[in-house]
MmgE/PrpD family protein
Amino acid sequence: MASIAEALADWATELEPGPDDLALAQRSLLDTAAVALAARDDPLTGIAADLPDAARWAAVGHVLDFDDLHVESTTHISVVTVPVVLATGGDARAYLAGAGVMARLGNALGWSHYSAGWHATCTAGAPAAAVAAGTALGLSAEQLATAMALAVPAAGGVQNAFGTHGKSLQVGFAAQAGVRAAQLAQAGATADPSALDAWLELVGGSGELDLSGPAVPGGLAIKVYPCCYAMQRPIAALREIRDQVRGEVRRVRVRTPQATVTPLIHDRPTTGLEGKFSLPYAVATALLDDYPDFAAFTDRAVERTAAQDLLRAVELEHTPGADGLLTGEVDIEVEHDGPTLHVRLAQPPGAPSRPPTDAELAEKFKACGTDVPALLSGADWTTVRELLRKTFPRAT
């Protein structure tokens, strides 16, 4: 019986992308590039300046937490696979091979893996990055399986890093591990493909793979706000009633399945990065800011007296449902100086069932920098590669 790595390698080698797959790849390329460009002035850009291309571009592409998400597997697919493909000279097919493997590995790992505290973007990301890089480098199916096995030692990352530079850096490490593994396999390194099976079992995954369907099963969610995906729904819900809030907000009761707030580990954030992983701050920024943009997730914004007061007004109540960030719906009540307000929401803007329009994508790109729409107009994998090399030159 073929190992998981061999089955995935065969699937990746035989992949023939259709028009919808290629459209998803192009959108992912542009979304990832736009978010990376938005981080040009972030402190991490200098900190990570001496990392190899794949690691550096993945880290800066994730530090703002504005990149896309595969909801079913709770993995940030494109911020791993796009930088890897760019760094190794690949194209849309290499991206789709790596993205498809990452989605399927993430699904095999399952919600129990994520809810146990693993950062699935990194655990599923390292072997998937090996496939993306290996496909770009022209590896055979046998070599791809070997590369995945060689990436297993780097398939780690934990949620304790959320709210620090560690989160984006460990994503960069996973991306670079995949490049290294593919290069070693290309050079003739050997490994037992069943190492991936053993690793999957050790970290609580299953050996069940569904290789049918589109390249990326379930599609990808595009973020509308630059923060953890678990905050997108409550922010969007509150924005529907924000204009009706009057005077002092005395209490905000949020009812949502426990699974949907798993990564929101900072109840009392004091920094902008911590604010990106805080349900109470999702409430605060949704009510205080006309639009929760990058300015809403700075240290200064989180430290606002009005924001800190709202943090203390939030009450969280868990409802049934425990298998994903979009399980069930969010139900919010706001007690203020007028009649109590009530709102419910199941799918936020940008979710796979509510894909962004061209206008919404254009608005997001503009928010990432006034020059970004022009920079990415008509861009392909070659032009984005050169743009990132120019924008984020390696220090060494």
Notes: Strands lie at 251-257, 314-319, 330-335, 341-345. The longest strand covers residues 251-257.
